[in-house]
Automatic annotation (TrEMBL):
GO terms for molecular function: kynureninase activity. Its EC number is 3.7.1.3. Keywords: Hydrolase, Pyridine nucleotide biosynthesis, Pyridoxal phosphate. Catalyzes the cleavage of L-kynurenine (L-Kyn) and L-3-hydroxykynurenine (L-3OHKyn) into anthranilic acid (AA) and 3-hydroxyanthranilic acid (3-OHAA), respectively. This is Kynureninase.
Length: 426
């Protein structure tokens, strides 16, 4: 059915300089599984596993002294890893901190930067946003005594999947105080033009920040050069930090004089934190935006994951990721058995993140059939299936195998064996 494409896949894998990193991950290939859900939860790598074991060992042997002793002293780990993470977002090392969660960090950014006035009270976002982001925005509008229906403006999508940057820019009117958007839309995988949006916002005197959950670790950024005001992200998707791993935040250095809206003792200047003074002396950089004691067991995996990313380089990761998603889309277009699927991800390379969304009326049952055959996709209500071929651990032959299997399922109508329940998280 697809001999030529298979040869192409083998050739690409043969030339792939990232190929050796696959061996560092627990890919389940021994049980013939192909994991394509790294945009929900990245796989465990051996360096991260080792880092967690070392953290437990430090606790065992140093107890309280682990804060200042051992290979990775806990007291400065959030700052140290923030500096390492800065290259993933294109920031200066003082502009990034490892802390909190996506949701908490957005709350911190809004508590700090959303200062509504009667004339300028609107938070501008978009209707396809991840719900937790919208809930956070609603909270701050309410906390300031404004109304959601007049102060939260959501740009709508013309096709239900993607957004037009021009529509977003047209909504940047005088009453907008702050803009919060996702870099990559979590369903369709559309990558927005962050530079264009930032320039347009600043021309209109509006602050702008981005949720990088679906781009960090997959797409390079230049937040400092673009002048983005703030950003926040999780680390359990393309950064492979593990379930609930500690998140990150970027605050442009032009805002480092600002007192964080939410204050906690881990945001203190480290030299005076243990003076336990009743008044807050903030740290100099992005570290000021931390709250309480860092969740070190959920930070430790990042020691391994960030080391791998630094070595592999985000530019190479992006290059391979684009080649993988392009190959994926090409196969969907080529296999006649897959003609009933619709590709909802933009086809232009510059407008695409690291995953592909297919739609099919039988998506729920098809996902069950795929899982039964060892292909791990990501079901999205009601008709969507996301596939993320991840540069660090997936191969071109994985993509070929996954789509050949999908084609067989469609040819044999194998999904009809499964129940048509929609409540599944496949
Ligand atoms: C994954 C994701 C989140 C999750 O937020 P948590 O606080 O980590 O649960 C938020 N926003 C976007 C865009 C995401 O993709």
């Amino acid at each position: 059915m697809s001999g030529l494409q298979f040869e192409f896949a083998e050739k690409m894998d043969g030339h792939d300089i990232l190929h050796p990193y696959r061996e560092e991950f627990y890919t389940h290939s021994a049980t013939n599984q192909i994991y394509l859900d790294g945009n929900s939860l990245g796989l465990l790598n051996k360096r991260s596993e080792q880092a967690v074991l070392e953290l437990l060992e430090a606790w065992k042997t140093h107890a309280i002294d682990g804060w200042t002793e051992g290979k990775h002293p806990w007291f400065t780990m959030s700052e140290q890893l923030g500096r390492q993470m800065a290259s993933l977002v294109g920031a200066n090392s003082s502009e990034v901190i490892v802390s909190g969660s996506t949701t908490v960090n957005l709350h911190q950014m809004l508590a700090t930067f959303y200062k509504p006035t009667a004339k300028k009270h609107v938070i501008l976002s978009e209707a396809l946003s991840f719900p937790t982001d919208l809930y956070a925005m609603q909270s701050h509008i309410q906390l300031h005594g404004y109304q959601e229906n007049s102060s939260l403006r959501l740009v709508t999508s013309n096709d239900g999947y993607t957004l037009s940057e021009d529509d977003i820019i047209a909504a940047m009117t005088d009453d907008v105080a702050i803009i919060v958007l996702s870099s990559v839309l979590y369903r369709s995988g559309q990558l927005l033009d962050l530079q264009k949006l930032t320039t347009a916002a600043h021309e209109r005197g509006i602050l702008i920040g981005f949720d990088l959950c679906h781009s960090i670790g997959s797409v390079p950024h230049e937040l400092s050069n673009w002048g983005v005001d703030f950003a926040f992200w999780c680390t359990y998707k393309h950064v492979n930090g593990g379930p609930g791993s500690v998140a990150g935040m970027y605050i442009n250095q032009k805002h480092h004089h600002v007192t964080p809206g939410l204050r906690g003792w881990f945001g203190s200047d480290k030299s005076v934190q243990f003076d336990m003074d009743a008044s807050f002396t903030k740290a100099d950089g992005a570290g000021a935006f931390q709250l309480g004691t860092p969740h070190l067991l959920s930070i430790a995996p990042l020691i391994g994951s960030l080391a791998i990313m630094e070595e592999a380089s985000i530019a190479r990761i992006r290059e391979k990721s684009i080649a993988l998603t392009s190959f994926f889309i090409e196969l969907v277009d080529t296999f006649p058995e897959l003609s009933s699927f619709t590709v909802r991800t933009p086809r232009e390379v510059h407008a695409r993140g690291g995953h592909v969304l297919l739609e099919h009326p039988e998506a729920a049952r098809i996902c069950k059939a795929l899982k039964a055959k060892g292909i791990i996709p990501d079901f999205r209500q009601p008709n969507g299936i996301r596939f993320a071929p991840v540069a660090l651990y997936n191969t071109f032959t994985d993509v070929h195998q996954a789509l050949t299997t999908l084609a067989e399922i469609m040819r044999d109508k194998a999904y009809e064996e499964y129940e048509n329940s929609r409540g599944v998280i496949a």
